[in-house]
Specification:
Layout (H helix, E strand, L loop, with lengths): L2 H8 L18 H16 L3 E4 L5 E5 L8 E6 L13 H16 L8 E5 L13 H7 L4 H4 L10 H7 L14 E9 L4 H5 L3 E7 L2 E9 L3 E2 L11 H19 L2 E10 L5 E2 L2 E9 L3 H22 L2 E10 L2 E2 L2 H8 L6 E4 L4 H7 L4 E6 L15 H19 L1
Parallel strand pairs: 3-4, 3-5, 5-15, 6-14
Antiparallel strand pairs: 1-2, 2-4, 6-13, 6-15, 7-11, 7-12, 8-10, 9-11
Helix pairs in contact: 3-12, 8-9
Length: 397
């Protein structure tokens, strides 16, 4: 089955009829259906899939003549809430299609080639981005992860069990992985502006998520004078504006995209506003300076509003520089540009674990991502498949 047929098979899974966006939450029905689809596609190619105790998957193409550490490719199948079709699945479908392409060329790998799928890459359910790859590499422990809760208060350990998985059976081993290559739709317009279909990654900006808890006093919206209020919503509102200003002044990124309000009543002054800051910057120092500046302004405003603020770092990833020699070597295969990305990826986690890593990007004509409007032209996707096959052949000769 070719790329376009596989893509049509995936299109309905987890898609909202109302928005056209995707709700492929980890350890829920849509994502479980996709994991089963992946196993079926691998079986059709004679690849045996290993699924670990939390749902990470890997399948190897390993002829008898293949020796040494393998080349792993792949991505993820989960999505953000109301997300796009391409973020994650494009890398998985392209990996399967690249194996077909290499076999069609008569290529016989000297090193094993694997296709992997990591769970909870987005962190949209349990708040920890790239959780599957973090657990596999040891960057996060299961004892820590099992206590994470989703928005409904469900523990991660319970969600995994309900999905029919058993963490006690162990996690994937990356001991035999020599190189990792992740294909991904570009989350920006760099390739579009360059008028090229494919590029490679040079680095991932440092980024993280911080929880801001603004505590005040619940009160009546009608009878409480404005000067008598201790309203945490005001403190949050100023903080969101401060984050926007700090990011714009420094040429960085800062977003409050999620909030929770208690008691969440129309006619009540809130008692608590919890908001999550997503911040990204061109260097580790720049990221720390921006988050500190936002925090200081928020604390100053809390003092004026009579509210209290607690800031908690929930998930922070340092800058990742991909192997420059590997990127240069692969870029020469197609005269592809090497560009930076501001989005986090499993590739960054594996690179931090010491595995030589590269990323292949496919052009996104709108630059929109994490949205139903995310898009890539079929012709560019097919070019990406060919590019990935070229890269894998180069690494597995």
């Amino acid at each position: 089955m070719g790329f376009e047929e596989m893509w049509r098979d995936l299109a309905p899974v987890g898609r909202s009829a109302a928005s056209g966006g995707y709700f492929r939450q980890p350890w829920a029905s849509a994502e479980s259906e996709l994991r089963a689809w992946f196993a079926q596609e691998c079986a059709a190619r004679g690849l045996t899939v290993e699924t670990d105790g939390i749902g990470n998957q890997v399948a190897w193409w390993s002829p008898d003549s293949a020796t040494g550490k393998g080349v792993l490719t792949g991505s993820h199948l989960d999505s953000v809430l109301d997300g796009g079709a391409y973020d994650g699945p494009l890398g998985v479908v392209s990996a399967l299609a690249a194996v077909d392409t290499m076999r069609g060329r008569g290529f016989e790998p000297s090193r094993p080639i694997g296709i992997g799928v990591f769970v909870e890459e987005e962190g949209s359910r349990f708040g920890r981005a790239c959780l599957g790859s973090r657990l596999v590499t040891g960057a996060t422990t299961w004892d820590e992860a099992r206590e994470l809760r989703d928005r409904d208060g469900v523990f991660l350990a319970d969600a995994v069990e309900v999905a029919g998985l058993d963490p006690s059976t162990g996690l994937l081993s990356l001991e035999h992985v020599g190189t990792f290559v992740e294909l991904h739709v570009e989350q920006g317009r760099d390739l579009f502006d360059r008028d090229v279909a494919v590029g490679l990654a040079s680095e991932i900006w440092p980024h993280g998520r911080w929880r801001f808890d603004f505590a005040g006093q619940a009160n009546h919206a009608g009878t409480t004078r404005m000067e008598d209020r201790r309203d945490p919503m005001l403190t949050y509102a100023m903080t969101a504006l401060a984050a926007n200003k700090q990011a714009r002044l420094a040429g960085q990124r800062a977003t409050f995209g999620r909030i929770s309000v208690e008691p969440n009543g129309t006619n009540a002054v809130p008692s608590l506003v919890t908001a999550w800051l997503d911040a990204r910057a061109s260097s580790d120092d720049a990221l720390a300076e921006m988050v500190d500046a936002v925090g200081r302004q928020a604390q100053d405003r809390a003092g004026r509003d009579g509210t209290a603020l607690t800031v908690t770092a929930e998930s922070v990833s340092g800058s990742v520089a991909f192997d420059p020699d590997l990127a240069a070597r692969l870029a020469g295969l197609g005269d592809w540009p090497v560009i930076a990305t501001q989005a986090g990826h499993d590739a960054g986690i594996l690179a931090d674990a010491g595995i030589p890593t590269a990323m292949v990007f496919v052009r996104n004509p709108t630059g929109v991502s994490h949205s139903p409007d995310e898009h890539a032209e079929t012709a560019d996707c097919l070019t990406g498949v060919e590019a990935l096959a070229d890269v894998l052949e180069e690494l597995a000769r």
